[in-house]
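Newbie here. two chains, one complex. Structure please?
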Amino acid sequence: MKFQIKYFAAVLAAVSLFVSCNNDDDSAIVEGTHGDAELFFDNGVAGDALIIGNTYTNSNGESLTINRFNYIISNVVLIREDGTEYIYPKEESYFVINHADELQTVHLEGVAAGDYKKIRFGIGVDQQRYLQGETAQQSFWDLAAANDLTWTWSTGYRFINFEGAFTSTAGTEAKPFQVHQGSNTATDNYREVTLDLPTTARVRENEQPSIHIKTDINVLLDGDTKILLQNNLNGAGTAAAIMGGQNLIDIAANSLKMFTVDHVHNGAGSHHE
Amino acid sequence: MKNVLLAVLSFLLLLSCGNDDADLYEEINEQLELNVPANFPPMAQDISYNYPTQKGFELGRKLFYDGRLSADNAISCSFCHEQATAFTHHGHQLSHGINNLEGIRNAPAVQNMAFQSEYFYDGASNSIEMLSIAPIHNPVEMNETLEGIVAKLKQDKEYVRLFKQAFEDQQVSSGNVLKALAQFMTMIVSANSRYDKYVRNEGGVFSQQELLGMQLFQQKCASCHKTDLFTDSAFRNNGLPPNPNLNDKGREVVTGFETDRYKFKVPSLRNVALTAPYMHDGRFGSLESVLNHYSNGVRQNETLDPILNQNGTLGLSITQEEKDAIIAFLKTLTDEEYINNPLFYYKT
């Protein structure tokens, strides 16, 4: 089956090459042609830029020095004005954002030419992919593991890995914190967000839109539901860890407001390299 | 379908590369036959994504028996999961792994895995394909990484050849290591005990005592040790007082919910006469002690399963004669064909 699809795609690609040769109108959508698109994730903290090592104080009265902020983006879908969807091939639709390593861009290749008004994507790994394990061709596990986005004591992916040190109103000495968001066999914490694009993203054979998305880490703990690190200290009181239970369900809900699209660049070339 | 494609592909390859590589394509990888035993519930895992093939199964078996899956190249899966004892770690309460380190749990039987929906005593995994990640990375079991294993196996020509034969993408990769192990575990089915032959009318004969034991089991035990898998894959507290040295919170470790404290996965009882010691921490050395626990040892606790607390009476009422009968019945669950099946063994 896979072979057939690939073959079909190859024929399509070949056909589209012919088609494009005598197409000189950039803005018209030529049926059956494809282009690239990119999503750029601009990570920030409640309006401030995210700088590793910098300290941010939230409305919970806690100050967080952030050392790591990595997450998984998946199952990207582009939506046209009439509501029809271009679904990026699921097998290739898992991506890692790693702030410290400046891995902030998701490249989409071979997207159907079109005018897109909305985007939808997942935060983390959906249950279907979990249960299929590593069936997908792309060996996503290795990439996720290299970016500290896997769990190994239980088997699965960390959707968000958010770590650093914090001080609270109650104490003065900074203590390490770890927020590891993910699903477990009791709760499915995978969520999808749909975002409006302020301007149309035009995908053409020689036009690559770049969708600039702002990510606000602050909402994870200081969103609709407030989560205090101070309330999640280990038995010895030396560090805070959030890796399970109700916290993950609350963080999943908070994360629905983590992303907004700031602007869209249309035209040729990459915009955020 | 797949076979046809493979055949076509290998034909094309033969055509295109002349005769120098012909030996790589001599064998066509067949899908294995996988029958659900008539007395079993349906499979709980969707194996259509990773349907066992001859080559995939054989590769998975080789990996299961290969010490290179651990950091010091000495601890294979089979080190803790021995076929002769239904793939448990015989004689160990708590498993010993790399550098002789001791874990906190007793290795359970590995059998009929595709029929189960949760794995490990705390449900740390619910996917037959992903579950191997846990023992491989556990610092007191194998202490390796998938990337590390792949790097080692790529050095070995034999493995490179076997992965090529087993998988469409032909790669030695993390994903394919997991898939091969899953195929092996999918195929190791235990369903030919005397009990199975009795319930399937295949000539299994039961004594009066064993018959009585079966009835008692159905009344007193089968609400948790359900179906012919003898587990409902649920997490329950069966009234064991927590071991203060381990302080193992069971299911709570995975979910983070206090309501899950001290709940453990109901284990299958197939081959149970072979799998001593018993319970998640291997605290009981015999089936007699297990039965004594259910009659006299059940402790009140917030999460104690209600089945074991009937109007304030803790545990199950079982007479000595009944205990003997239940144990006689449990012994009929031993499957000699399973523990002696040469297909499930690989000589390293």
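Moderator note: Chain B touches chain A at residues 1, 5, 9, 45-46, 49-50, 118, 123-131, 133-134, 136-138, 145-147, 150, 168-169, 171, 173-176, 178-179, 182, 251, 254-257, 260 (CB under 8 Å). The first strand of chain B starts at residue 235 and ends at 236. Thread marked as resolved.
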